Amino acid sequence: MEVIIQQDYEQMSRTAARIVAEVLNTKPNAVLGMATGSTPLGLYQELVRLHQKEQLDFSRVTTFNLDEYVGLTVNHPQSYHYFMHEHFFRHVNVPAQNINIPSGTTSNYPAFCEWYEKRIAECGGIDLQILGIGSDGHIAFNEPGSSLTSRTRLKTLSKQTIDDNARFFEHREDVPVYAITMGVGTILDARKLVLVASGGHKAKAIAQAVEGPVTSMVTASALQLHRDAIVITDEEAAADLTMRDYYQFIYAAKPAAPK
Ligand code: GLP
Fold first, then answer.
1. Active site residue 189
2. What is the pLDDT of residue 259?
3. Can you give the pLDDT at residue 258?
4. Which of 12, 39, 233 for mutating ligand 1's site (highest number of atoms within 8 Å of CB)?
5. Which atom, in ligand 1's list, is nearest to the CA of 38?
6. In this structure, which topology does domain 2-253 adopt according to CATH?
7. Which of 25, 79, 80, 207 ranks highest by number of CB atoms within 10 Å?
8. What is the mean pLDDT of each run of 10 residues along the chain (259 residues)?
9. Per the residue annotation, which of 143, 189, 234, 235 is the catalytic one?
10. Atom of ligand 1 nearest to the CA of 199
11. Which residue is closest in CA terms to ligand 1's atom 12?
């Protein structure tokens, strides 16, 4: 696992966007895995800037989102469909038919989940998966106890996640209790993983994910099993990493990517 500790949120976001852009420059028809949450917002803003100012082209890109709340329609302001259109898709040129986001309103969840997995495979698999991390160490909505080989399925949200996400809803009771989410196994199948984390409230989860044991109780720790996983944090989210000087030393010694 590569750990990149950046000074602040802006730098973290720019570094993550540069990695996405590099993938698109080598493979213009790449399949991107998208994440929601407040953390990747800066990364999306930077990708939008690169598209508008530096011709970063998404016209051949296909995307798959990690997850969606069960019961929220695509127009609900807290749905991940709405989030993605608002913060990313309406500003770039990913063709509408290439955008895949799990349905929160299907009448048959098992069939939908199976179809989603099949669709990812038909598109050749995910080249780069963007990830955030929950304060309980989850990736997507793979809550503590999720099998590390799990696939796309319905998941019950933990109390911690409902509390964390209540800030986006009017009342805590409005937060959906279920979500449809790619599994940890689905995520590990992506060819490259980029996880972004910012702020002191993520420090414990990052330390557990990067330096703790691989355990289904912290599903982000499964990144340790992946051959090309990059964790990008700001200083605050890196605060509990015991090897932080070592990661910084490695990153500083790394030759700059050719322009
Ligand atoms: C939700 C999402 C995750 C995200 C997490 C953290 O639980 N399903 O994909 O990583 O929130 O969100 P934030 O970046 O807002 O802290």
1. no
2. 52
3. 56
4. 39
5. 15
6. Rossmann fold (3.40.50)
7. 80
8. 98 98 98 97 98 98 98 95 98 98 96 98 98 96 98 96 92 95 98 98 98 98 98 98 97 77
9. 143
10. 16
11. 37
Residue ranges per domain, the chain? 2-253
Q: Compute the distance from residue 67 Cα to the ligand 1 centre, in Å.
A: 10
Q: Which pTM value belongs to this model?
A: 0.96
Give me the pLDDT at residue 244, please: 97
Tokens 């199948």 found at: 189
Q: Does 240 qualify as catalytic in the annotation?
A: no
Which pLDDT score is estimated for 243? 98
Ligand 1 center–CA 243 separation, angstroms = 25
Among 46, 51, 67, 81, the one annotated catalytic: 67
Note the pLDDT of residue 213. 98
